[in-house]
Design brief:
Length: about 400
């Protein structure tokens, strides 16, 4: 958050995105930390997600990004409504009218942001109807029920080498803001930038930035140019995922490994079992097969009796990713030599995701190798994995489902 503040300056509003349970990391556990680190607003996708944050010790508003037309003020939403902290998003004229009726029924004035579709073709109102909607909210019949506190768009291609389309969307949006500037409230937040756009150009900062990956220390991977690329390199990932070795065995040359016998030992091999699989969110596309080798991506610490220092090595995943376990190749780290003491023992730790951006198991590197986006890898981490929260000012906090195996922490 300090790096992001350095990029955007003191007057730009910071809005971390905590949708999908904070990208799978625990929205309720993270919200207070982010607010304490300078977040002025927090964004989620649904009313249910907003309600989960309602009982936190927070004073910042919560922005709901999904189209909402009608709802009942229950499960914490009443708390947000009473404090004026529930911000909703307008996507279309019909939804706007329905939401105004809801506000009248509830006897409140609802703060709203208008999303404008400038080329993503997902949510948001059409560009040619945006000006009329702004004027309706500000001075039309519904002005007594809805209060325009934000106007925004969302970019389609933020990491593209050629930013032409991104700049086209920005120009379309800026033209709209110019058209309606005579009626926009002075405190209306204008926002376009996600994490990558924040680091790409000052043009996109406006009066607020929406931070997804960046608050977790990601967001500039794959970005090869930008006004703030050097500052972006100061980001430090906050996420690591660890487990341990629970079984080790030696197999002969020619022995097939795993479901489908997709990997075959070319030499006498030492393999290890790690109790993590696709049910935990470990990507299936990271396993090496006879047809295609994958990079070594599981960090293993060996204890060499000839040295006083432990050494970190990386082992490939073999054959297939199972529901609850993966098999890793320890041969180069701990060769099956009957005369030498083993360097890898049962219970030795392994690192599945590293907080080191240069490591082969850095989250964006893993995601790229698996053919998925970093968001998908983070949000796909199972709720059965323990989450351990380290805070400089507080004791370590841990959350876990009763189903979490003792061998798996993350």
């Amino acid at each position: 958050m300090r790096v992001i503040r350095e990029v955007v300056g003191p007057r730009c509003v910071l809005c971390p995105i905590l949708k999908a349970n904070g990208y799978g990391l625990g929205a309720q556990q993270l919200a207070a930390t982010l607010a304490g680190a300078g977040a002025d607003l927090l964004a989620v996708y649904s009313l249910e997600q907003a309600a989960q944050l309602a009982h936190q010790s927070l004073t910042v508003p919560i922005l709901v990004l999904m189209p909402v037309a009608d709802f009942e003020p229950a499960d914490g939403l009443d708390t947000l409504l009473a404090a004026g902290r529930l911000n909703l998003t307008i996507h279309a004229p019909q939804q706007m009218s329905a939401l105004a009726e809801t506000a009248q029924r509830l006897g409140v004035v609802l703060p709203v942001h208008l999303e404008v579709d400038t080329g993503l073709s997902r949510g948001g109102c059409d560009l040619d109807e945006a000006s009329a909607i702004v004027r309706q909210i500000v001075s039309g019949a519904i002005a007594k029920r809805l209060s325009l506190v934000g106007l925004f768009t969302h970019f389609a291609l933020t990491k593209a080498v050629d930013p032409t389309y991104m700049n086209l969307q920005a120009t379309r949006f800026e033209d709209l803001v110019e058209q309606v500037k005579d009626v926009l409230p002075d405190d209306c937040l204008i926002h376009t930038a996600n994490s990558v756009a924040t680091f790409r150009a000052k043009r996109h900062h406006k009066s607020m930035v929406r931070i997804g990956q960046a608050w977790a220390g990601y967001g500039t991977d794959g970005l090869d140019s930008g006004d703030f690329l050097e500052l972006g390199r100061k980001l430090r990932p906050v996420v690591s995922w660890t487990s341990q070795i629970v079984h080790v065995k030696t197999i002969a040359p020619g022995t097939p490994v795993g479901y489908g016998s997709r990997w075959t030992a070319k030499r006498a091999s030492r393999i290890g079992l790690v109790p993590v699989g696709h049910a935990d969110g470990y990507p299936t596309g990271l396993a090496s097969t006879d047809a295609k080798a994958r990079p070594a991506c599981v960090g293993v610490t060996s204890n060499d009796t000839s040295s006083t220092a432990s050494q970190l090595h990386y082992a490939p995943v073999l054959g297939s990713v199972n529901m609850d376990q993966i098999i890793i190749d320890l041969t180069d780290i701990d060769p099956p030599d009957a005369g030498a003491p083993p360097k890898i023992q049962l219970g030795d730790p392994v690192e599945l995701i590293s907080a080191d951006p240069s490591a082969p198991n850095h989250l964006p590197t893993l995601a790229a190798s698996a053919g998925i986006v970093p968001h998908a890898l983070l949000a796909g981490l199972s709720s059965r994995l323990a989450r351990v929260y380290h805070d400089a000012d507080q004791p370590i906090r841990k959350t876990a489902s009763p189903a979490v195996a003792a061998a798996c922490t993350g």
